[in-house]
C-alpha cells in the first residue's frame, strides 16, 4: 500500500508544483477537483469525468449520510465502488451544508443538531460522527469537522467560531482511523482577521494533519478580500503539506490563488454552469442560450479537445438547450470540466518552467479585459 505523502517538486515564487501520493493513486498539484456531492458528478458518466483529466473528485458527508446513508454505501463496497471512481476521493465534512441547508439547527460544543432538508428528521452531527461517516464512505482524504464562519462576521463571532472549530479539529484528528495511504486535513478559519488566522494555523499545526485547508473564504467577501487573506494565510501553514482552498472557484480565482501558494481546489461552478448553458472559454464565458449562436457553425473553443468542441457546433449546442435536451447539459459540463483541467495542466507546466508569474499576469489581464469571450 502506498503511504499518504506530499512531495514538493519545485516552486516559482509562492506557486508550488507537487505530487500527493495516496492509497487510490497519485495527484499532481496544483489540482482541481470536480464536485460529485451525492456520489455523481452531475450530468457526467464516470468515464467522461476521467476523460477530462480529473485526478480526484469531491463527495459530501452531509448529503451521503442522509441519502442513501453511509452504512449502505459501506455495505456496497464503499464510495469508490458505489460510484465507479477508483481514484482518490476527498469528502467535505458536512459542516458547511449544515449551516447553509438546514432550516433549524443548534450548535453546541458537542456538535450540531439539525433538521434534514430532505424529510425534516432531527440529526446530530459531531466531529466523531463525521469521522465515522467518512470512514464508512472510504474517503481517501477526510476533512475535519468545522463550523464555516459566515461572512460578514464580527471579530468576536469569528474568534468564537474559529476556536470551537479548532477544538473540533482536535477531536476529529483523535477520532480519525489512520490507514496506509489515507489522510485527514485540518481547516483554518478566522474570517478576514489576520491574528485569528495565525491562531488557527498554529492550533492546527500543533494537532498535526496530513494536509491543511483554508476555509471560510468564497462565502461572499469578494475576490479582492479573498486574495488579501491569501497573501499571508498559506504561508502560515506547513511548507511540506498540501494546501487546499475550499469552494474556489472561477479560473481567475484559481490562477490568483496558486500565485499565493494554494495547491488544491474544488467548486461546483464548471458543472453548475454547464447545466445552465454557460461555457468557459479563453478570456471569459459564453452563454450558449443567446440567439447569436443559433446558426453559428464554429465550435465553442477551437483549442479544446472535448467532444462538445471537436464534434459539435455552437448552433447545435444552442439547439439542445432551447429544446431542453439533456445532452446539452452533458456536453457543456464535459467541456467546462475539461477547460478547468487544461488550465490546471497549463498552471503546472508554467510553474515547472519558472514562468508562472508572467503566466498569471497575462491570464488575469485577459480575464479582466473580457476579450471577445463574453459573447465571441
Explain how this protein is built.
The protein has helices at 46-51, 61-66, 70-75, 79-82, 95-101, 127-137, 155-175, 194-207, 223-230, 251-258, 269-276, 307-311, 314-322, 326-352, 356-369; strands at 5-12, 15-22, 25-29, 31-33, 57-60, 89-92, 105-107, 112-115, 122-125, 141-143, 183-188, 211-214, 243-245, 264-266, 278-281, 284-287. The radius of gyration is 20 Å and the shape is globular. The termini are far apart. It is built from 15 helices and 16 strands. The chain folds into 2 domains: 5-267, Alpha-Beta Barrel (TIM Barrel), CATH 3.20.20.105; 273-375, no CATH class. The strands form 4 sheets. An 8-stranded parallel sheet has the order 4-14-13-12-11-10-6-5. Strands 1-2-3 form a 3-stranded antiparallel sheet. A 3-stranded antiparallel sheet has the order 7-8-9. The longest helix is centred in the C-terminal third of the chain and has 27 residues, at 326-352. The protein has 376 residues and is of the alpha/beta class.
Q: Please, how many domains?
A: 2
- Strand tally: 16
Any low-confidence stretches, pLDDT <50, length ≥5? 371-376
Radius of gyration: 20 Å
CATH class of the largest domain: Alpha Beta
Q: How would you classify the quaternary structure?
A: single chain
Query: What's the arrangement of strands in the largest beta sheet?
Result: 4-14-13-12-11-10-6-5
Total of helices:
15
Level of helix content?
40-55%
In the CATH hierarchy, what is the superfamily of the largest domain? Queuine tRNA-ribosyltransferase-like
General form: globular
CATH architecture of the largest domain: Alpha-Beta Barrel
Span between termini: 49 Å
Percentage of residues in DSSP E strands: 15-25%
Structural class: alpha/beta
- Give the rounded overall mean pLDDT: 95
Give me the CATH fold name of the largest domain: TIM Barrel
Biggest sheet details: 8 strands, parallel
